[in-house]
Amino acid sequence: MSISIPNEDSEKNTELNGLQKIATPQEQVFDHGMLCWLQVVGSFAVWANTWGLANAYGEFQVYWEQRLLQPASQIAWIGSIQSFLILFMGFLTGSLFDAGYCRSLLIVGNLLVVLGMMLTSICSEYWQIILCQGIVTGLGFGCLFTPGVSVVSQYFVTKRQFANGIAAGGSGFGGVVYPIVLHRLAPQIGFDWAVRVVAFITLFFGIVSIATLRSRHASGKMRSVIAPGFFKNTPLVLYSFGLFSIVVALYIPIVYISNYALTYHITDPNLAFYLVPILQAANIIGRLVPNFFADWTGPINMTIPAMIGAAIVVYAWIAIRNQAGLLVFAVIYGIFFGTIQALGGPCIASLAPDRRNLGRSMGMSFAIGSFGVLIGTPVGGAILGENDNFVAVQAFTGSICVVATFFYLASRISKAGLRWEKV
């Protein structure tokens, strides 16, 4: 294991994503060795237990619509509450993480996820599902996500984006595994037991994350949930509004693509189901390859082209009425989706000046974005309506992607101007 230890009597400038920082013994960064790569393994498990399971909600959406006979927009609130709490809880968990409560957050979060899914397996009423799958599981997600994302950035500098990309691959992995488990097991052992199997899988990932993740920077005391200087950091504030905008749109195709395929008789029901796992598998590519190059370009410089690409393919989705075209859309959108989501944490890390407050900076930015997640898919469902107005949903989604891109561009220009710079 290679550890860079500076002289305690002198200050040593180290590069942190283009920012010059003062390295102290409390701010050592591991770029190699088992300890730092164990953080990637643990973060992978957290991503699988948060966004991986949240991204599988489309399978639950189909089942709950059939079982509860509720409108799509109402059922969508269950998944939206989950995703909202993943980000909104960062407002509190970021401060707890910076204070040294990483392990406690991981234990509580994983217990809530397992408990929430076990309780979901015995739910039969809408309010019960909102409480168990939406709120209990969502609170667990929220406890896990900020520690899971923040730790990796404490251990990497030169390979930070690539390491974060590997870790974020847990989202795509979970997004593939969980829906297939439900889809395959539900006809054989019943939906309730299939959900319990999912809960046991989350228990496994939870044990992995608790055993491996270790925070490096802890103040030892609880501080304000407001990151110092956050609202004076114009690039970070603009980025946060961009995050709010993009997450309004980002999950709409995932939730409604299967319904789209069935409504227009583009695929048979079996292939319609597999569109989401295909999208999530492509998601993994989008997390690995662009993140590798983002270590040279900077995360924001890599994210902006992905957002432009996402807007273009969503607009193109309007014209797709055949199976081959829809499969191509799922793959390409999945790649852009993975890039945008995986580079979210690194983008904040590149704009936040102090790693000791990184948890709070991420938490505040995620909290702003959380309201976009909350309203995104329900608004999509409301626009869709009973008449299945998919063209309006697609146009809305693409337009929001364009708005978000302008916020990201404004953040990048505010940080580095129009000149080329790693951001």
From TrEMBL:
Sorted alphabetically, which keywords does the UniProt record give?
Membrane, Transmembrane, Transmembrane helix
The subcellular location is:
Membrane
Q: Which organism is the protein's source?
A: Pseudocercospora fijiensis (strain CIRAD86)
For whether the record's keyword set contains Membrane, the answer is: yes
Give the residue spans that cross the bilayer.
35-54, 74-97, 104-122, 128-150, 162-181, 193-215, 236-259, 271-290, 302-320, 326-352, 364-384, 390-410
What name appears for this protein in its UniProt entry? Major facilitator superfamily (MFS) profile domain-containing protein
Q: Which family does it belong to?
A: Belongs to the major facilitator superfamily. Monocarboxylate porter (TC 2.A.1.13) family.
What superkingdom does the record give?
Answer: Eukaryota
Q: How does it sit in the membrane?
A: Multi-pass membrane protein
* Domain Major facilitator superfamily (MFS) profile residues, every copy: 35-416
Species classification: Eukaryota, Fungi, Dikarya, Ascomycota, Pezizomycotina
The protein's matches in Pfam families, at most eight in alphabetical order, are given as: MFS_1
Major localization class? membrane
- Transmembrane helix listed as a keyword: yes
- Entry-linked InterPro entries: MFS, MFS_dom, MFS_trans_sf, Proton-linked_MCT
Q: Name one GO molecular function term.
A: transmembrane transporter activity
GO CC terms for this protein?
membrane
